[in-house]
Specification:
The chain is an alpha/beta fold. It contains 13 helices and 9 strands. β5, α9 and β6 form a beta-alpha-beta unit.
Length: 346
């Protein structure tokens, strides 16, 4: 018998020949696991619904009709799925109990087959990936912070829709006059007659006279940013003539209590930034009367904690920023303590 020479190529071919013809793919939830749940579990473990005129609630408060519900679990307080941990996954536990166990699932109908259990087990071990499936989101807990943001966005949408109704776009001549005064003007939204105006590229050019030049746009302006400009209380006499103004930024301006007192004429104002101005508690009394306000910034002003407390009581729905604590850079505290020790050791 002729012996063939052993080469690197022959070894590679031999190894390839011994490997399985196909590699098993990951178990897909939607095509392989969800059909099992639909057939064996969802009749008893779905969101509350009506059947024959009666309200049917999920047994043991356990829902398996949504990804979030499977991860949450039911009255046992145990998640039905713990990714990569079969032993802690309640779903797998109750499906593999002895049939005479009171907790064996499903209690009626055909039990889960060996092949189906193998798929569920593998799916859990592989990480319990839902592959983008969410299921029935009814009843899903809402993150309070996210819900607050969504609520604000909805309120803004409703407000701006109302303000834009029947309003004509600003004329080309009016836009040119505002831009010639150093203002940057842009639509609040695409195809909206509402405008936002700022002087970010011309801060030094913006003074009380500049605001007078903006009056040609007063019907359309809803956002006005005058931060770091030379605007004073006198300039606010023009600002309060903008009937649709909702957002006003007066950071680092020379505005005082006398100027803020005029803002009560703005009927749609939701945001005002007075950071770095000379306003005192007298301004807070004015702001307390503007019930539309939702965001107020008073950092580095002469407003007191007591005054801010009264303002919060008057406007419980508003977010009021007064004292801002800036964390020291990492290691700064340690360096400061070392410096103090050196000083004390001298």
């Amino acid at each position: 018998m002729t012996k063939l020479p052993i080469t690197r190529r022959s070894i590679v071919l031999w190894v390839a020949a011994t490997l399985p013809v196909t590699l098993s793919a990951k178990v897909e939830f939607k095509s392989e696991i969800l059909p099992i749940l639909e057939t064996k579990c969802l009749k008893c473990h779905s969101a509350p619904h009506e059947e024959a005129g009666k309200l049917v609630k999920p047994k043991a408060e356990l829902r398996l009709d949504a990804a979030w519900a499977i991860l949450k679990g039911g009255e046992s307080k145990r998640p039905a799925l713990v990714p990569k941990d079969v032993a802690k996954s309640y779903l797998y536990e109750v499906l593999t109990l002895p049939k005479d166990d009171d907790m064996f699932m499903p209690p009626k109908g055909d039990p889960v087959t060996a092949d189906e259990m193998a798929k569920i087990k593998t799916w859990i071990e592989e990480g319990g990936d839902f592959g983008g499936w969410e299921g029935n989101v009814a009843g899903k807990p809402v993150d309070p912070a996210a819900a607050k943001v969504v609520q604000k966005e909805r309120e803004h949408d409703v407000l701006y829709k109302a303000l834009a109704e029947g309003l004509q776009p600003a004329s080309t001549e009016a836009l040119k006059k505002a831009k010639d005064a150093g203002a940057q003007v842009s639509p609040l939204m695409v195809n909206s007659p509402l405008l936002r105006v700022d002087f970010l590229t011309g801060v030094s050019r913006c003074d009380d006279a500049s605001i007078q030049n903006l009056l040609v746009l007063k019907e359309n302006v809803v956002h006005l940013d005058l931060a770091r400009t030379a605007v004073t209380d006198a300039g606010l006499k023009a600002v309060v003539q903008f009937p649709r103004l909702t957002r006003l930024d007066l950071r680092k301006t020379k505005v005082t209590d006398k100027g803020v007192e005029q803002l009560s004429a703005l009927k749609h104002l939701t945001y005002v930034n007075l950071y770095g101005t000379e306003v005192t508690d007298a301004s807070l009394a004015t702001l307390a009367g503007i019930k539309t306000l939702r965001n107020i910034y008073l950092w580095e002003t002469k407003a007191t904690d007591a005054g801010v407390a009264k303002l919060k009581a008057a406007l419980p729905q508003a977010e009021i920023v007064h004292n801002v604590v800036i964390a020291a850079p990492e290691g700064a505290a340690q360096e400061d303590n070392q410096g103090k020790r050196k000083k004390n050791n001298k």
